[in-house]
Amino acid sequence: GLLRVASFLARQGVTAWMPTLVPDSDENYRRVIGAMDDLMVRQQGLPVAQAVGVHYEGVFANTAMCGALRSEYFRSFRDGPGDFVVENKTGTTNPHEHARNKSIPLPRLNRGVHMTTLAPEIEGGIELIEQLVAEGWIVSIGHTSADADTLDRAFAAGARHMTHFFNAMTGLHHRDIGVAGWGLATQDVTFDIIADGIHVDPRMLAMACRAKTPEKVSLISDSVAPTGLGDGDYELWGETVSVVNGRTKNQRGSIAGSVSTMLDAFRSMRKLGFSDDDIAQMTSANPARLLGLDDRGLIQPGKRADLAALNAQGEIVFTIIGGNPVPD
């Protein structure tokens, strides 16, 4: 199934992707991570979009900003039964051991990038960021209503990116900077944003990207399983998600991800007046830099031969992945 997704993405001009998991049971996490480990072996040399790691969206999120995420799987970073086991050198449980010895219940891949989106205001959130960063994770801020002081502390702890900007976070107000305002005002913070014209009004999308500058913005699809399948009802995350006119809705009435592609995002940004150079920066160079993938994202000698060529109408002319042409 993951190879089918990777093949679909390749036909849309995507050369690499970051599979994203929403909050779920430990059993499902382990099962999916096992499948992804298998994928990352089997994909090598194939003309399919290459999975480069895993992104956990949650489980450390603010229940008031859950969006389509299932809050029954949310966690805080504390000691206690069902949460984290803290052991000292003698192997006995010690609930007062330093936070760096806590176990983070997010299964790791055998290879690839590890990223998570979290709300820094959750219990133990700043300690969690410090530990994740120390263990080589990329920490992104999202599903949050944190105040500016907490966000500053999160930044100091190593969280330098923000997930699906404007969505599932407090907005900008002239007397309350909010999470979105903090992201725009904090120079060294980058963000990704959904350019489907549904999650963010196109005028707000253009304003935010120009204010932040294309050098600090990554475009994301936020696409979910029904992408490419058309309108209809789909079973997703234990509930029915409907797609009508390209817009998703779960049973609670919330938008449940996107059914757009990065190719759709490219075309949307063109319509908003962004240059092809700027869009290439936001769709290729910036995501690669965020994930620390120095071997791709730019067309330069020594980089991977991952290329997508588009014509003036925004149609895919050809895609090459690892030097291999993607079949039509």
Which secondary structure elements does this structure contain, and how are they paired or packed?
Blueprint (H helix, E strand, L loop, with lengths): L1 H10 L4 E2 L2 E2 L4 H17 L7 E2 L1 E5 L55 E6 L6 H10 L3 E4 L6 H10 L3 E2 L15 H8 L4 E5 L7 H11 L4 E4 L11 E5 L2 E6 L2 E3 L12 H10 L4 H15 L16 E4 L5 E6 L2 E2 L3
Parallel strand pairs: 1-3, 2-4, 4-5, 5-6, 6-7, 7-8, 8-9
Antiparallel strand pairs: 10-11, 11-12, 13-14, 14-15
Helix pairs in contact: 3-4, 7-8
What features would you describe in this structure?
Strand 13 (307-310) and strand 14 (316-321) form a beta hairpin. The chain is an alpha/beta fold and 328 residues long. It is globular and about 50 Å long. Helix 7 crosses helix 8 (276-290). The protein has a seven-stranded parallel beta sheet with strand order 2-4-5-6-7-8-9. It is built from eight helices and 15 strands. The model is unreliable at 79-100 (pLDDT under 50).
Largest sheet: 7 strands, parallel
Helix content: 25-40%
> What series of H and E elements makes up the topology?
HEEHEEEHEHEHEHEEEEHHEEE
Structural class: alpha/beta
Mean pLDDT: 90
Shape: globular
**Arrangement of strands in the largest sheet:** 2-4-5-6-7-8-9
> Which stretches are low in confidence, meaning pLDDT under 50 for 5 or more residues running?
79-100
Q: Tell me the span between the first and last alpha carbons.
A: 19 Å
